[in-house]
Specification:
Elements lengths: L7 H7 L6 H7 L1 E4 L2 E7 L6 H12 L4 E7 L4 E7 L6 H7 L5 E2 L9 H28 L4 H22 L1 H11 L7 H20 L7 H25 L1 H8 L4 E5 L5 E5 L8 E4 L9 E5 L2 E4 L1 H4 L5 E3 L4 E2 L4 E2 L4 E5 L7 H14 L3 H11 L1 H20 L2 H13 L5 H19 L8 H5 L29 H7 L1
Antiparallel strand pairs: 1-2, 2-4, 2-5, 3-4, 6-7, 6-8, 8-14, 9-12, 9-14, 10-11, 10-13
Helix pairs in contact: 5-6, 5-9, 6-8, 6-9, 7-8, 8-9, 8-15, 9-16, 10-12, 12-16, 13-16, 14-15
């Protein structure tokens, strides 16, 4: 059973959860030679198994030539050949990754982080209190006292699993109901089995219960996921910074002289805009009237302002410094210089290096291998000892001692952070594989005559300056 059942997609579209094919086509752009490309937001993607599922499903569609998921931005870029849109949206919804059209406003909202922080708080509170009760049991509490402490731990652990654990349960259920596996499945099974075994021990007046282990494990896993989310958010700060350089709208001057403020997404090619001093250029355009100084460092790296007048072409993101300008739009915002820079940064972050491809292939096999290992462990201990209680305890330990996402996330995180650091240093990385090729570089050639500096100014005409002026300068 899945959300792809008859009528499910139509219900989602009617409810506004899924973009229509017309919306997707309007948001796509032509790359030439009959190829078009669209970027969609897929918030449910969070691990290498998700990437593998999304990319393989899209590549199986007719006319699709490329599908690439960027885990940092949770976006998928799809290219296809022809003017007819393949069933991209319905395919993603059918495998449990409901897509939506990306917008700049989505950058400011981060509901996932808020949910993670709440889950960490709940699980941490529960883990601390259950641990205190466990210390009493370890110290020698027995009989009715021990059972009372265990039952109190049951009551504390239930809301922790329901509130904090739902992040893993939701992801695991979403994967299983669509016939696939992800790294949250073994986590959900591990903490649930640990709780179930502990509940059995409590009901049967057993000496040992493991509520502290299940809830504490959940607490530490959530800390790791929260730190990973924060790290990814910081790592893509370069892309976010680029997006924020583009104004949300501009003043459009109609042919009859009437002026109207419009969102940048509604500004069409050929429109006439008014850009006041202190405003950023919203789209690529050409100056029709006015004189001003422009900060064009975003395009050419030069810190000195450039004087512009009629006939001068301006790129989106440049800052108008001194005077008002009347400009004519050359291309829409989706095809502007700033949008292209953003796409280059996202391509660099989402690029597949050799080590990243190896990590993703290994992590994609993680879930089935761990489950098979746990099953074989259980069967082996049953055959060796005949003690089902001990056998299931060891099998649960196999599930919970592993670190599911370390391999699949560590390599991409390093690549994303490196791309951000390079961008902050003024270097645009177009391909993630460039990081690996940099190891063999022994010579660097710069074509920036007259502008490269050491970053530490020194006085070159001290002999021409009077002693009095030098004293003032000091």
């Amino acid at each position: 059973m899945s959300c792809c059942a008859p009528g499910a997609d139509m219900a989602l579209q009617v409810a506004g959860a899924l973009p229509s094919d017309d919306e997707v086509m309007l948001s796509s752009r032509a790359l030439g030679n009959g190829v078009r490309q669209i970027e969609l937001s897929v918030p449910n993607v969070h691990c290498a198994a998700c990437i593998q599922s999304v990319e393989s499903s899209l590549m199986a569609l007719p006319d699709v030539t490329r599908a690439r998921v960027n885990l940092s931005t949770k976006r998928v870029s799809v290219q296809w050949r022809g003017e007819t849109l393949p069933p991209i949206v319905s395919t993603l919804a059918g495998i449990g990754y409901v897509p939506n059209l990306f917008s700049a406003e989505q950058i400011a909202s981060d509901k996932t982080l808020s949910e993670l922080i709440r889950a960490v708080a709940v699980s941490g509170f529960a883990a601390a209190n259950i641990m205190l009760l466990s210390v009493s049991v370890w110290s020698g509490a027995d009989g009715a006292t021990r059972d009372l402490f265990h039952w109190v731990s049951v009551l504390i652990a239930i809301p922790a699993l329901l509130i904090a654990g739902r992040i893993y349960y939701r992801s695991a259920w979403n994967a299983l109901r669509h016939g696939r596996m992800n790294m949250d499945v073994p986590i959900a099974i591990g903490i649930t089995m640990a709780y179930a075994l502990s509940l059995h021990e409590t009901i049967t007046h057993g000496a040992h219960a493991y509520f502290d282990a299940s809830v504490t494990l959940l607490f530490f896993l959530l800390i790791g996921r929260t730190l990973d989310h924060v790290m990814r958010d910081r790592a893509r700060s370069a892309v976010i910074g680029l997006a924020r350089l583009q104004p949300r709208g501009a003043v459009v001057e109609e042919r009859d002289g009437r002026r109207e403020y419009r969102p940048v997404s509604e500004i069409a090619e050929g429109a006439r805009l008014l850009v006041a001093a202190g405003e950023r250029v919203p789209v690529d355009c050409i100056v029709e009237a006015g004189q001003s100084d422009i900060d064009a460092s975003i395009a050419n790296g030069e810190s000195a302002p450039q004087h512009v007048g009629p006939g001068k072409e301006l790129h989106a993101g440049m800052l108008n410094l001194t005077g008002p300008l009347t400009v004519r739009v050359l291309r829409p915002a989706s095809s502007s210089f700033l949008a292209e820079m953003t796409r280059l940064m996202e391509a660099a972050e989402g690029g597949r290096t050799r080590y990243r491809r190896i990590a993703e292939r290994v992590s994609a096999l993680y879930a089935p291998v761990v489950h098979l290992t746990a099953l074989l462990t259980f069967l082996g201990w049953i055959a060796a000892t005949g003690d089902w209680h001990r056998s299931i305890t060891v099998a649960i330990a196999v599930l919970i001692i592993t670190c599911p996402c370390a391999l699949g996330l560590a390599v991409p995180i390093v690549q994303v952070v490196a791309a951000r650091r390079l961008f902050e240093g003024g270097v645009m990385m177009k391909d993630g594989a460039a990081l690996e090729r940099m190891v063999g570089i022994d010579t660097a050639v710069f074509d920036k005559t007259g502008t490269l500096t050491l970053g530490s100014p020194r006085l070159v005409n001290g002999a021409e300056i009077s002693v009095g002026l030098m004293g003032i300068a000091r």
